[in-house]
Fold:
Amino acid sequence: MKRLLLIFAIATTLSADVRLPKSTKTELPNGVVVYFMQKPAVPLVNLHVIIRGGVESEPDGLAGISSITAALLRKGTVHRTADQFSAELDGLGGEFRAGANDQAVIANGEFLTKDFDKGLNLTADVILHPVFPESEVKKALSQSIDGSRSQKDNPQAAISQYFRAFFYGPAHPYGRPADEASLNRIDRYKIVEYAKRIYTGKNTIVILGGSFDMTAAQAAVTKTFGEMPAGAAYQWAPVRKPIAANRLLLIDKPDATQTYFRIAQPGISRTDPERTTLQLLNTLFGGRFTSMLNDALRVNSGLTYGANSILDLQREPGALTISTYTRTETTEKAMDMALDVLKGINTNGITAEQLSSVKAYVKGTYPTQALETADQLAGVLGDIELFGLNKGEVDDMFSRIDAVTLAQANAAAKKHFRPENLTFVVLGNASKIRDVVKKYAPTMKEVSVKEPGWGL
Amino acid sequence: MKVLFAFLLATAAMRGQPGEVKPHMLSNGLKVLVQEDHNIPNVAMYFFYRIGSRNERPGITGISHFFEHMMFNGAEKYGPKQFDNEMEKAGGNNNAYTSQDVTVYTDWFPGSALELMFDMESDRMRALAFNPKIIESERGVVYSERRTSVDNSNQGLLREQMDAAAYIAHPYHWPVVGWPSDIEAWTMDDLKAHFKMGYAPNNCVMVVVGDVTDDQVMKLAKKYIEPIPSQAPPPPVRTKEPVQIGERRITIRKAAQLPIQLVAYHVPEAKDPDTTVLDVIDAILSSGQSSRLYKRMVDKDQIVLNVNAGGQHNLDPGLFTFSMTPRSGVDVAKTEAVLFEEIEKLRTEKVTDEELTKAKNQLLAVQYRRLKTIAGRANLLGNYEVFYGDYNKLYTGEQDINKVTADDIQRVAGKYFVATNRTVATLLPEVKK
Structure:
């Protein structure tokens, strides 16, 4: 009896909605969109800059140029050498990071509030005035080539790259992870051309969050980013849906004592109307400790330290992927079991009790993931702007979750968690598992981890 | 940088501002720290048990870590799977970690689940179940964890070998996850004895930060946890690591694209005043792209892909470890020589005022970033209480850092960074036959 009452009490408390804190949005004449969101709890200020494009905007054959360009921003500007930038940044105890994801470059600077002016100046300088010195370009490229090799010493990092290449294929921008060949084709001229095209006012979103004086910050940020050339807005390519096909890539790592594997099918995009339902379903399937996959492969059988599923939500439809590992000898048992769990959710769907549990879980964990700090909130605002959403993304989140019915969830499970036409990517000791895994697909491709590239 | 920790001392819990940390002691010896913070409707509740691999012995190595897993497998009231099921159903999630010194349980949940969490945490603290079938299944899980983090990780494997070489007598010699033969062999009696030794309330510090009131927390603590009897704490760790009297070297050949090098020096325990000086040294050498090692080795000479330095903060004397990945084609003798040259400079030349100020600002800012979240604060408060003996040290840490002088750095580098006190571990790619 006590537990029933408890569930009731929790459901009541959690139905109180969450709200996106108030922010001000301005569009500058050059197209830069600026948000100001005060979050005065701690005296830090966070400058989050988003440049549309990311991996999607990489020219053919130049995979990696988006990340390399982002990494080179701090390596010399019109006003500072790389060393000067680092000395000033570190001297303030500031942080600056820049990297690329599938559809954007994210550059993030964080400083103590008292250093606001210096922090803004440093961050804006590298976005607005990078010069990409030849020597730094060469250095960064050769480091990236070694970095890409060193990823192969980490099976989990390596399988992620092989997976992207195999699942999306070379015709899709998500399917072209940087490798030695693509990095060797990049040079300073191509970086400068690329940056000129992409780092424009019309592609830029700036989010200032944290503790700052609104009037002074508005004037300073508006003036600084107002100097960015307007340029042209990046034109997104038409959306491509990944292929559902039964195929298998085996990556041979002869010294591996366990097998790492991914089982994937096409998923949905970040803006898909079914995203709330699928997020709930995926959480139940493989997105939390008590999920169906982890329960079967870890808790009940001790086959692995962890089994999960990833619903990759990007601008274009991504993958819905089962991911886990097990010792070489139990490869078949674990792969069969993962497939059984997939068949289970497709055939049997979920129960009302599971749906109610996962609703509470997603709502209960959301504030610590998205609403607690200025940088988390900048990420939320950035997504809203980048993907053309609105503040309902946060404000209506709990009501969207509450509105998902069991019938809807089970229809979505049947439609999206398909047990056929699956893509398998397996990394392990091929001599011991080759004969075992070939049953999962009519075609099997095998590569060695020692070969350059990601199996394309 | 004076503004840094001042806000933590604020006595009134202003809107959006965390309140003062309130300490309490239950009659059974469990220390409680509470900090109200109503920024988000969530709570971080951490339990620091003073038990880790240092409390083990040959034959049961890894048992503390195994216990971390067993604590989720059922107790008297909440049976197998129920801890996680009930918690997730209430909108919470959890994790746990085991180190050489402590085992820490980390719960994050909406304020509405506070009583449930007290009920479940006290249940497993008081009366854990020992189901033989679950123990066998969990052995498989832990072995998989070892296989992932050590056997199939070049970095993890080398680190394990280095610890084993650097310590010949003290329990830090063996890995937290345990030696394979011990993972396969520990018995039900070993488990029961270990639980009794480590999981008493008087061996635990509880930290609660978030959307709660001090009264709420203490009422529940008194109801659920205070009735659990105290027990004899783990016996003191007697063995002290003898002073190292000569450099030790190990080399592993393994399939790899790039080598890895680790160099470790014995340094004192967290409480020792030299620890703060070593933290400043860490910042000067490897924090940020303006740091000495990054500038020299990654950027100028381009001989390594990455280089890091860092001291462990342990209950007993720990290690200050340098780790680096040489670039392809670069001789590991070369990278080692350059590293030693940079370490030697700390002994022979004084660091500049500019470097010292920069390092201090970096350390304070890093500490400050850790305080942004309720989880970060719960973790720091617990760590200061356990490793420095008083959570208030969190506030005086700023003064300690500011006191460090260029002379201190030269003295500390001269004292610990000597060849006879170091262990060098190298992983080299297998030679093709």
Remarks:
- Residues 248-429 of chain B form a domain with the Cytochrome Bc1 Complex; Chain A, domain 1 fold (CATH 3.30.830.10).
- The first strand of chain B starts at residue 21 and ends at 25.
